[in-house]
Amino acid sequence: MGMTETDYLEQLKALLPLGPAWPKDDAALLTRFLGGLSAELARVDSRAWQLLEEADPRTTAELFLDWERVAGLPDACAEAFGGPQTMAQRRAALIGKLTTIGGQSAAYFIALAASLGYAITITEFELHDVEDNVEHPLYGAPWQFAWQVNAAEDTVGVLAVTDTVEDPLAWWGNELLECVINRLKPAHTLALFAYT
Question: Cβ distance 151 to 125 under 8 Å?
């Protein structure tokens, strides 16, 4: 934690030369002058500690919009389909954008959907060959590049304790999920969406 006004005053008084021309008692004019300087030094010290908080996207408040701008947020999906996002959603998107390295596995897309507030499963299609059971679906060669996202028909999100008073009480829809998955899926694949 930073130093207080009293800490700075004591430091400034300790730096004064010795002698009767440099009084250090509380009523002296010089001590009151140093008190004014110590108040400003404590304020600057406090702001320096706050800057450390602002340097971390997980704790930033004043510089949050700058962090979003640098990360390219809100992205096209959030603007087009997401509607008004809560502060917690915006912070999660920012942290995700800065820390995510991507992936192609089903687990990656399930975790991605969970970070957006969606519970999904993924179905991958296997090519049919002569060794398969006769009840196995007949998927041809193009199906090896398709996969299916299974989600609830209407996913509803509700206001959380960490949200602000400006955030909506509830939101629903799957357009954001489709947009984000289509944007991040491997380019040679086709993502199908099935809602139950």
Answer: no
19 close to 56: Cβ distance less than 8 angstroms: no
> Contact 168/159 with Cβ under 8 angstroms?
yes
Q: How far is CA 45 from CA 39, 48, 51, 161, in A?
A: 10, 5, 10, 32
Contact in structure between 192 and 147 (CB atoms under 8 Å)? yes
167 lies in some domain: yes
pTM for this predicted structure: 0.56
* pLDDT tens per residue, range 141-191: 788 899 999 998 776 666 666 677 776 676 556 788 888 899 889 999 999
Residue pLDDT, tens place only, 27-36 = 999 999 999 9
> Do residues 49 and 129 share a domain?
no
Residue 97 sits in the same domain as residue 173:
yes
- How far apart (Å, rounded) are the C-alpha atoms in residues 45 and 119? 45
Question: Which residues are bridge partners to 121 per DSSP?
Answer: 150
27 and 112 co-located in one domain: no
Are 195 and 172 in contact by the 8 Å Cβ rule? The answer is: no
